[in-house]
Amino acid sequence: MSDANNAKTFRWWNIALLGFTTVWGLNNVINNFANQGLAVITSWILIMILYFVPYTLMVGQLGSAFQDAGGGVSSWVKALSNNKLAYFAAWTYWVVHVPYLAQKPQIIMVSLSWLFKGNGSFIKTSSPILVQGASLVIFLGFVWLASKGTATLNNLGSIAGIAMFTMSMLFIILGVSAPFITHVQIATPNMTDIHTYIPKFDFQYFTTISMLVFAVGGSEKISPYVNKTKNASKEFPLGMIILAVMVAVSAILGSFAIGMIVNSNHIPADLMANGAYQAFQFLGNSFHVGNLFVWAFAITNTVASAAALAISIDAPLRMLLGDADSKFIPKALSKKNKRGIAINGYKMTAVLVSILIIVPALGINGMNDLYNWLLNLNSIVMPMRYLWVFFAFMMLSKHIDSYQSDYMFIKNKYVGFGLGLWTFFLTAFACILGMVPKMNMAQDPSSWWFQLALNIITPIALITLGLILPAIAKRTNKDLDEA
């Protein structure tokens, strides 16, 4: 008994800080400001209350109920439903990383451009075909590197994660204080008028919700720590609420800081790609340190993206091949080389990501539009994995009497099921409306329609492939067993 108590060493502040570094980053602020301007501050408050807080507390109850399942979403689904749905959960978790992997080389190139050129001209002047060709080379290089093992990049990724957290905090402190310390002119007019912060709840607004959902997702990674928390029933929810407050404060102050630097009424088209660097450049000039902040952020972003690229080639694939029932996955995909790498799984990843790198460059005009489109695609596809968290919580609520845990978010099965259904619906709604391109249709109709087609076809194609694999497995695995 004493060993079990000794293992419960996490306190509420550990949970809050761990969650914050897992979930949050400066780019979440930049990307959503680019979509909504200063009105995003109201959106942040709404998304925290209506989505993020219940999401994180659901994760806590699931993690606590299945403390021996390693915290994997597919493990929860398997325990609460059946092996087939668990396979689809594992497949979804893996396949949503395809657009994520396709964008990381772009982020690395933008970072290196700022590091060596000191400006954002790269995203405005480069040919999409040329950049995507280079992206393909970078990506395939990392596939090769990941096949050799990623221990060094894992360590670098941890360091870069702490550095990115530090840069995010530095940005907020400097951004909010700059007008008062350096007396620079505030870029957005009427920042004291409440109407500046009220969104226009029209169709265009609802197409941007997916980016907010994308920004606050991923807290299921914290679930394994629920049962390591001292007095979990009280301290875990407190940690999660403090996490939500920290994210909300960072989002609101970060958006406020950007509003001081960038005019919310005239948002630059390249803000998603170049915004963080431009903001750090502005702050560097205001505090008379030149490009010091730009260089620090560029190096941090390059290393963090490189580490994430290598790790995300390997880790989600291991989860797919390890968690899912082998009868749904062709045995050939699990074939390993002498280093224990599922080499055919790597090849499948390489093919899918390569297609997603090259095909869009054939129909989207301009590197900036291509960058923004791929980021938007991530906001459509990545939240698809959150749907399985909410499905699992609905099933847990339905059979709540059979699953007791140290931490209970909601004990009433009907309220729990209803809340799970609400977050499931909101996620699906955001993903579907997020498919509408964010560019002006009148300026380039052919590119607009091409983006819409890709936004619809890509998730359908990725899900369909997951439906086909079990049929292939049924045939090929039987042949292999007979052989």
TrEMBL record:
Residue stretches spanning the membrane: 12-30, 36-57, 122-146, 158-181, 201-218, 238-262, 292-311, 345-364, 370-393, 414-436, 448-469
Localization in the cell: Cell membrane
InterPro entries: AA/rel_permease1 (IPR002293), APC_superfamily (IPR050367)
Alphabetical keyword list: Cell membrane, Membrane, Transmembrane, Transmembrane helix, Transport
Main location: membrane
Pfam families assigned: AA_permease_2 (PF13520)
Membrane topology, record value: Multi-pass membrane protein
Protein name: Amino acid permease
Species name: Companilactobacillus huachuanensis
Highest classification ranks of the organism: Bacteria, Bacillati, Bacillota, Bacilli, Lactobacillales
